[in-house]
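Model it.
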Amino acid sequence: MFETREGETLLAADPAELRPDGHVVFIGRIVSPWASREDCPKNMRAARESRRAATVVIDEPYRPGLQNLERASHVVILSWLHHAPRNLIVQKPRHAAEPKGVFSLRSPARPNPVGLHVAKLVVLDIEAGRIGIDAIDVLDGTPVIDIKPYYASTDAFPEATIAGRDEK
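Modeled.
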């Protein structure tokens, strides 16, 4: 699914093959309109521009944890990007002139492929474990590892930049 490009560096040991040191559990799955990597938006901005909604389905044992989530206008979804390679440590993005370290990128290919998504909460059905969101940039069936409310007062940094350029 991912090809190695000139200038990229692989880890000596693939983290997917190492003994786990955390006991992360999947609490649900994302139901998205994206069936293939080629069709899937590359980021949340592109996902919103597609105007295609998505649903997070939380497994029954974790549904009580959704109580009071309706107070949030937006949610932070942490997903497990299960199709991504875990052994790529230096990447050469197609749009970049030079290779970059994985921790300076938002690429799904990383030692622990955790996805971070901020989405608008559209509807919440706690009994069914369904969280309707405005958009998502992951494939259908992507596992969910956590949901958190987004707090603009503490989570937003209007002055934030990356590599010296404004990302607003």
